From TrEMBL:
The species this protein was found in: Rhodosorus marinus
Compositionally biased residues, Basic and acidic residues: 146-155
Chain intervals with Basic residues compositional bias: 156-169, 272-281
Pfam families, alphabetized: RRS1
Main location (coarse class): nucleus
Entry GO terms, CC: nucleus
Keywords for this protein: Nucleus, Ribosome biogenesis
Protein name: Ribosome biogenesis regulatory protein
Region (Disordered): 126-241, 253-281
GO terms for biological process, alphabetical: ribosome biogenesis
Similarity remark: Belongs to the RRS1 family.
Localization annotation: Nucleus
Keyword Zinc-finger belongs to the record: no
Role: Involved in ribosomal large subunit assembly.
Length: 281
């Protein structure tokens, strides 16, 4: 509800000082009294000193009571990933697990994954023979291959989820470093590409790298030289001549017909053809 006084209620005025609004429900078209009444109410409010404005005194407005609509629609929620849908169906709640877990066999804490983890094959001396093992197949090699395939599968799912959850029309930012495969098949970054990426990163700050601190043996970043703009002469004689010449060129290019290319006859110029006939005689 907006605030009203006995005197203002007679004229049908309602005030919202928080949004600096006044609502006049009277039939009169003159809104000057309503604006004047709102200004009087603002001057009656508490005044405070604002240090961010150089110690100026400002009016402390109360909270607004009028609901103002949004300028833009409410943003839509991103589409959930496959894991989020699955977790909601199964009632799985997101909880950060401890990195160290208790191992009953060694009676000590071990990492959940990674080096010297509980699932590390280095600590397993013997693996049971399963019916799916082929003749002469190493169970340790098979286990490593399964782990590698699982990692690749999870990475493929992660990329698919990112692509699905990405909003329409959004394009991922290109990488500054282009990775190419070397002789061994592994990813390799060329030296020229690294130098190029470093120069781009040096000039990506607000000062174009002028005030950035160099790290180690980092090469100096040459500052871009601004090209001076060439202006026409400002003197009367030279300026008029240059302007007249430029305008004539524009008029010729617009109004004069373009010259058509001259096509030579199939036998060549007539002079050459006559010389060839004389030589034959």
């Amino acid at each position: 509800m907006t605030s009203t006084d006995a005197g203002d209620a007679e004229f049908g005025m309602e005030f919202d000082e928080g949004n600096m609004c006044v609502f006049d429900t009277s039939t009169g078209e003159d809104l000057a009294p309503a604006a004047q009444a709102l200004v009087h109410r603002l001057f009656k409010l508490e005044r405070v000193v604002d240090g961010s404005l150089g110690g100026m005194r400002v009016v402390k407005l109360p909270e607004g009571v009028t609901s103002i609509p949004r300028e833009k629609p409410v943003p839509k929620a991103p589409e959930p990933t496959k894991w989020e849908v699955f977790a909601k169906e199964k009632g799985i709640q997101k909880k950060k697990r401890d990195r160290m877990v208790w191992d009953e066999e060694s009676q000590s804490f071990k990492p959940r994954y990674g080096y010297k983890s509980k699932k590390s094959l280095k600590d397993v001396p013997i693996l049971e023979h399963t019916p799916d093992l082929a003749d002469g197949e190493n169970p340790f090699t098979k286990k490593k291959r399964e782990v590698k395939d699982l990692v690749e599968k999870n990475e493929k799912k992660r990329r698919a989820n990112e692509k699905k959850s990405r909003r329409k029309g959004a394009v991922p930012l290109p990488s500054l470093v282009e990775v190419e495969k070397g002789p061994s098949g592994k990813g390799r970054i060329p030296q020229k590409q690294l130098v190029k990426s470093a120069k781009i990163a040096q000039r990506s700050t607000a000062s174009v790298g002028r005030f950035d601190k160099r790290v180690g043996s980092e090469a100096p970043n040459p500052q871009p030289v601004a090209q001076r703009r060439k202006f026409d002469p400002v003197s009367n004689d030279g300026g008029v001549k240059v302007e007249l010449k430029r305008d004539l060129k524009i008029a010729e290019r617009i109004f004069l017909p373009k010259p058509q290319p001259v096509q030579e006859p199939k036998g060549g110029p007539p002079g050459k053809k006559a010389k060839k006939q004389r030589k034959k005689h």
